[in-house]
Each structure stands twice: as C-alpha cells, then as structure tokens.
Amino acid sequence: MKNRSRGFGLVEIMVALVLGLVVVAxxxxxxxxxxxxxxxxxxxxxxxxxxxxxxxxxxxxIRMTGMYGCLRFDTNQMEGAISPPSNLSYPILWDASxxxxxxxxxxxxxxxxxxxxxxxxxxxxxxxxxxxxxxATSSQTAFALRQLVYTLTGNQLTVRDxxxxxxxxxxxxVTAFNxxxxxxxxxxxxxxxxxxxxxxxxxSVRLTLTLNDPTGQVRAQTYNVVAALRNRF
Length: 233
Description:
Blueprint: H1 10-63, E1 92-95, E2 100-106, E3 117-121, E4 127-131, E5 141-153, E6 156-161, E7 168-171, E8 174-183, E9 189-191, H2 196-199, E10 202-211, E11 221-228
Antiparallel strand pairs: 1-2, 2-5, 3-4, 3-5, 5-6, 6-7, 8-9, 8-10, 10-11
C-alpha cells in the first residue's frame, strides 16, 4: 500500500489565516489601548504637576501676605524713605471680572529680582518703607516686600512682579481661576467678593484652578486648596 503525502487544503489555510488575523487584531487592540491609557495617565500627571506648582506658589505667597516687619510704620519719613503706599493696607485684592488676584507679600530669600518695597527697622524704635531694594546696617533688619499680580488671560495664568513688571506665564491650558475668601465670624463664611473694607477680615483663601487637556484625551481637571493667613489668627 502506497503512502500518499498530503498538504493543507484551501479551507484549512483560510481558517488558519482567519485565526491569525484575529490574534493579530487582538494584539493590536491591546497595544492601542495600552498606549492610550499611558498617554492619558501622562497627561493627567502633567496637569497635576502644573496645578501643584501654581497652587504651591500661591499658597506660599498668601501665607506671607501682610508680613511687614516687627513695628508699625513711622509717620515721619527718614531721608530716602517714602510714605507707606496704600497697597500695603490691602495685601489681598481680588477682581472677579478680570480673574485677577493681587498680593503684597513678604519676599522669601534674597536671590530673586529686586523687591517692590523694603522695610528697614531696628525692631525697637523705627520702621521705614523704601521703594525697591535697600540694604540694612548691622543694627537694622530689612524686610523685602513684593507685589504680585496673578491674572487669567485667555487660557494662560500669568504673574506680574512689582508695579510695572512684565507678566510671566505660570501655566497654560487654564480654563478657570477662582478665589474665595474665608471671612472672620462664627461660623466662618466664604465669599468671592472682596472689598477694601472686608479685606482686613480675611482669615483664609480658597483657590480653585481648572486645567484643560488640549488634545482631548482626558476631561478637564479641577484642583482646590485652602491657605490660611499666618498673621490673621
């Protein structure tokens, strides 16, 4: 009896091809899904880092608002000193129509740009305000003050340093920047309207930042923090 060599039939080949295509399609689908998930997670992580940077900076500045040294300002100015500007009386201002937050805060460190004002005091008998930077003598202490203006312009949150500084971009793809204020009382109440008269009653500030993904991979993310003013409690 003769042995006959037989190959694959057309039906068998077609079945094998179909099964192979199904396996390849599944692998491709898994790869695409994994890549999409990775990109979405990377986008969310980047948005979180942007929000953390902006909100951390704002919280640090808010906690130092109104820190003008160890004595009240003198009414009689020494040579070179100026009358305390009205800005110092209202260290926190919020313009909801412009999404603009203005802070007068104690400068941290001495390696940055020139401060807006400098308070020179011996913490015993006098306290004077000077425009810009000014060095203290061995018996004096210098308190650098900086005015910062945070503004939402288009989809960019910017900060302007000083009275005439150039705005710098802090974050892109910002769709909302809101600020509400905890006003002293029992219980404490929050409001998004702040006037010169009520600014002295602020005890805490709640910041809300909403970031958008321009690629549309993830939905808009909203972040909230609350900062307490150190010298108000």
